[in-house]
Design brief:
- Keywords: ATP-binding, Molybdenum, Nucleotide-binding, Transport.
- It comes from Nocardioides aquiterrae.
- There is one protein chain.
- Helix content is 25%, strand content 32%.
- By secondary structure, it is of the alpha+beta class.
- The chain has 2 domains: 217 residues, P-loop containing nucleotide triphosphate hydrolases (Rossmann fold), CATH 3.40.50; 110 residues, RNA polymerase II/Efflux pump adaptor protein, barrel-sandwich hybrid domain (OB fold (Dihydrolipoamide Acetyltransferase, E2P)).
- The chain has a 6-stranded mixed sheet with strand order 6-7-8-3-9-10, with helices on both faces. It has a 6-stranded mixed sheet with strand order 13-12-11-15-22-14. It has a 4-stranded antiparallel sheet with strand order 2-1-4-5, with helices on one face.
- Strand 9 and strand 10 form a beta hairpin.
- Helix 2 runs parallel beside helix 4.
- The two termini are 26 Å apart.
């Protein structure tokens, strides 16, 4: 493994561990306050853990008496704010990284021009940061981080503050320049994880609650947060009498045993909405109170607490759905996947 990290920071409620293989991009997902940024701060050397260990390429960065400072870790951190030096040109901002590692002025500028070209910002070289847009600033900051030739790149929601119009192009840039690099990416956006990450860990309350290949975690979530960002409904509880908290479904190969914690997962598109409980074919039915209506493509997503259903605009009008309205969500057991947590 390139990065091995296990850390406890009592004041911030962190007690987590993760590993990142050489050349792998790991996405860290989780709600606000889950401990994601604290984890990056420990890796970067900005925060000393109360207990634990951080190693990079086999080098112990946190051994007692030999705590390695941030500037000597060969780790670059890129956050929401590009933090460009306002008094330097874009070229000199990027050249600062190799200069800080001992490169001469000519070599540093050559390196800076190469990385500005890699991120599609070569035409900005002579500008000052005040004359670049938010998206352009993040490209420059990315070039500066890469120009430092880090062994590990930490990205702390680098696109969270950007206008939605610039995100697709920047994601494609990241996908290209991060290939074969060792990266930890903190993000709230499921698209970042799908397009950029090889693996995902999900954090809640300072702990890692899910981990695995990106598609596996997002297709088979085991926590409410992961289900929400993956656009799925999730009901959790013990597996009893062929159901999870009363929800029947199709058990996967790793079917839970009686009494074991399990989850039932189904798509909002599989949910039918009624004002009264339906008859006919056996269904799972949930009396709900509508909490929110929101556009979802050419349909309306009807939210009722942690559950959601997709209906047509016509159906929403005919059912007179609105926040506070009582309704019934129904889903066939054949549309529900059940697996152990």
């Amino acid at each position: 493994m390139s990065l091995e990290l296990a850390a406890t920071v009592a004041a911030r409620g962190l007690d987590a561990a993760l590993e990142v293989a050489d050349g792998e991009t790991l996405a860290v997902l989780g709600p606000n306050g889950a401990g994601k940024s604290t984890l990056l701060a420990v890796a970067a050397g900005l925060l000393r853990p109360d207990a634990g260990r951080v190693t990079l390429d086999g080098r112990d960065l946190t051994a007692p008496g030999t705590f390695v400072p941030t500037h000597d870790r060969r780790i670059a951190l890129l956050a929401q704010d590009p933090l460009l030096f306002p008094h330097l040109s874009v070229l000199e901002n990027v050249a600062f990284a190799p200069r800080s590692r001992g490169a001469g002025r000519r070599e540093a500028r050559a390196t800076a021009r190469r990385w500005l070209g890699e991120v599609g910002a070569a035409d900005l070289a002579d500008r000052r940061p005040a004359r670049v847009s938010g998206g352009q600033g993040q490209r420059v900051a990315l070039a500066r981080a890469l120009a430092a030739d880090p062994r590990l790149l930490l990205l702390d929601e680098p696109m969270a503050a950007l206008d939605v119009s610039v995100l697709p192009a920047l994601r494609q840039t990241l996908r290209r320049v991060l290939a074969d690099r060792t990266v930890v990416l903190v993000t709230h956006d499921v698209l970042d994880a799908l397009l950029l990450a090889d693996r995902v860990v999900v954090m809640e309350n300072g702990r890692v609650v899910e981990a695995g290949p990106t598609t596996d975690v997002l297709e088979r979530p085991r926590s409410g947060f992961t289900a929400r960002i993956a656009g799925l409904n999730l009901v959790s509880g013990p597996w009893r009498d062929g159901a999870v908290a009363g929800v029947r479904g199709i058990a996967a190969d790793d079917a839970p045993v009686e009494g074991e914690p399990a989850v039932a997962v189904f798509r909002p598109s599989a949910v039918s909405v009624f004002r009264e409980a339906p008859g006919g074919s056996p269904r799972n039915s949930f009396p709900v109170t509508v909490t929110e209506l929101e556009p979802h493509g050419d349909q309306v997503r009807v939210r009722a607490g942690h559950l959601a259903a997709d209906v047509t605009v016509q159906s929403a009008a005919e059912l007179d759905l609105a926040p506070g309205a009582r309704a019934v969500f129904a889903v066939k057991a054949s549309e529900v996947a059940v697996y152990r947590t």
